[in-house]
């Protein structure tokens, strides 16, 4: 705008000079001198001048008053390269209009459906301690879909906002577990609400990852109590041919070895001082503690046994496993997979007194 004002003032000045005596000759001489100076300055230039948009506008307005024959000599707006670039842009636009899809929208994959997003977020909200892999396996089991854990992670990062107190059980869940109890597997120790030590013996099938049973004992464990715990854990499930155990001193009792001989069970020991040589049961104990016992209180040994049996049912029939390709231990033994749920019509079922919530077919 400032350049147009200067141009207008210069036009008025030139008209005033033309009205003076000899003004026409002075303007022509000045124009010839300026043009000659431009010729001298451009002798060392090998490229076109850099023009701003306002310079091009002013030059375009001035061409309206110049004859076409004269315009070819003094044109500074367009260069051959400019014409070629403009032609290439027109060609590119033509073929883009011909061969681009007619629909308007953001290209690329659509991503998960709103129903699947709602199921993922609700599963995480109801089970805040579950990770992306666990949620993906559980939804694959229920809905029969192929979902990657990275999809779960992206959905939760965008749509899930945990509450400050979301982690951990609610007061209703805690109060529901104070009536009777549930605990975990193999040989480990836990404390009741009155701080009394309880030992839990866990027996599992290493092939199917299925929990066979639990044996509970309050107080110190000796040979006869260890035998009673083992016999109670395998009650109704028969006896194995081989039994793997670590080098814990509790498994060196004479009564324990005699009990195995009566049951015709061969004991196989792991590598000493190497917990990784006994990985399945150690990992199962960690799962029971991390996912269940850390959130569930108990009073007595009977209370603990009832709660562990409830977790056993959930673990064997409902909880999928990464090592089993997303199947449950019951499916590994030949049980029929439950009915596949529909994302548009499903309901939620609680397990272990509201500790876990899983979607099922409506």
Question: How would you characterize the overall build of this protein?
Answer:
This protein is mainly α and 362 residues long. It has 14 helices and seven strands. It has helices at 2-18, 23-41, 53-62, 68-74, 80-99, 114-126, 132-143, 149-159, 171-177, 223-233, 254-262, 279-293, 301-317, 329-332; strands spanning 188-191, 197-205, 210-218, 242-245, 266-269, 346-351, 356-361. The protein has a three-stranded antiparallel beta sheet with strand order 1-2-3, with helices on both faces. A two-stranded parallel ribbon has the order 4-5. The protein has a two-stranded antiparallel ribbon with strand order 6-7. A hairpin with a 4-residue loop joins strand 2 and strand 3 (210-218). The two termini are 71 Å apart. The model is unreliable at 175-185 (pLDDT under 50).
Strand order of the largest sheet: 1-2-3
- Which outline best applies? rod-shaped
Number of E-type strands: 7
Helix content: 40-55%
- Average pLDDT number: 77
Element-by-element helix/strand order: HHHHHHHHHEEEHEHEHHHEE
The N- and C-terminal alpha carbons lie at a distance of 71 Å
Largest sheet: 3 strands, antiparallel
> Nearest-angstrom radius of gyration?
42 Å
- Class by helix and strand content? mainly alpha
* Beta-strand content: 5-15%
